[in-house]
Amino acid sequence: MLIIFIITVCFSICCSESWYFHKNNPWSVNQSSKSSAIGGFYLDYLELIKSSKNESSVQLYNSSMYGNIIDYNNFFYSFRIPDIVFFGNKFDLLRIGIMDRKIDDIPFTANAWDSYLFNEPILSSINYDLIDQFTQRDLSVQFLIPFRNKFGDFGINLNFSLFKLNNYTSDSINLDLIYAKTLNNYYLQCVIKNLASYRKWNTNEVERFYPYVLLSAKFDLYKTKIFFQVDELYINQDYLKSSKISDLYSFGFEHPINYSISFLGGVNHYFSSLGFDLKFSDFLFGYTYLSHLELNESHQFSITYFLQNK
Description:
By secondary structure, the protein is mainly beta. The chain is built from 4 helices and 15 strands. The chain has a single domain (2-308), classed as Beta Barrel (Porin), CATH 2.40.160.
């Protein structure tokens, strides 16, 4: 844990002022309905490493955010690979994800009124015929690679993304590093987001993003699993001074009703959520309802099929 913290500090010190405080991940709460249901807890790594040695899975995911304004459709395939030992690191798991985000009918209003005459538009001055509609599209391929060595359990999360809005396009890559530790009934996790990041636009503008730390924990309280997380811990004094620490926390729980059904709930600064998981044979169905502070509600669905490897 100390090594990970030192790496993050070094990266932040080396960052120039032109870098951005940005998650650089439009799928941060749109990869798993269960993750969203427990307050946005980073669940990808935990769900992968706890999978059975003789079990692979295929997951389909759909999310309609803010009253169907943004639509997400994702596909994930998790599977065992033959053991690979490389410089003392053992690799035996892999998850591949293909994630798609689409926003239709985005209004472009720059031509609809004279910004030199009006700081803010007056209804009578708007020419609605000059409001154009655009579509934004994001596509990402993700590789989540756990590995173990004498220092503990680690993981690499690698994302390659394409972005398109009207005539503007960009390519990006970002790398996250994960460290996890299990102590009795406690699961502890530290993630360095944007450990390495790079985005280049077709205008030749290049963007980089500050790394930040995500700390999370899970423990059992009788039959209920409790989740706690602190997100967006940037090692930067100016950012920390302008941020409310209370905005960084999230809480969640998972309570099994019986072997087949689990009830989920969570809350953070951005939304509160409720959901359930329903297991039937080799299938797992998930649903989450999100209530946002300022925007319309969101609905997320997932279906997972578990494959028994021979």
